Amino acid sequence: MRIRQVLWNGNTPYATRRASVAEIEDVLCDFRSVFRRNLPGRAATHLATGRTSAGRPLVVAFIYEAETRTAKPINAWEK
């Protein structure tokens, strides 16, 4: 999965409670991150598991829009 752009919206304060904007973008834009579909019925459609540029392990829950290859972060936490 390739993400061209990370879109931040009104959910930014919630998404960045446990990780910074830069850390979330590190994981979402890193080709080494592992992407998978989230469980049905969840707010986020996908999960990304990876490491920040500083090496911190994170899981990022996000909504993926395939047509535009954009990601809208919902939440993030340390793995």
Report the principal-axis shape: globular
Instruction: Report the count of strand segments.
Output: 5
Q: Give the H and E element order.
A: EHHEEEE
How can the largest sheet be summarized?
Answer: 5 strands, mixed
Helicity level, as a percent range? 10-25%
The total of helices stands at 2
Q: How far is the N terminus from the C terminus?
A: 20 Å
Strand content: 35-45%
Average pLDDT rating: 96
Low-confidence stretches: none
Decide which structural class fits the backbone.
alpha+beta
Brief descriptors of the model:
79 residues, alpha+beta, 38% strand
Q: In summary, what is this structure?
A:
The protein is α+β, with helices and mostly antiparallel strands and 79 residues long.
Description:
This protein has helices spanning 12-15, 21-29; strands at residues 5-6, 34-37, 46-51, 57-65, 70-78. 16% of the residues lie in helices and 38% in strands. The protein contains two helices and five strands; from the N terminus they run βααββββ. β4 and β5 form a beta hairpin. It has a five-stranded mixed sheet. The model has no long low-confidence stretch (mean pLDDT 96).
Architecture blueprint of SSEs:
Blueprint: E1 5-6, H1 12-15, H2 21-29, E2 34-37, E3 46-51, E4 57-65, E5 70-78
Parallel strand pairs: 1-5
Antiparallel strand pairs: 2-3, 3-4, 4-5
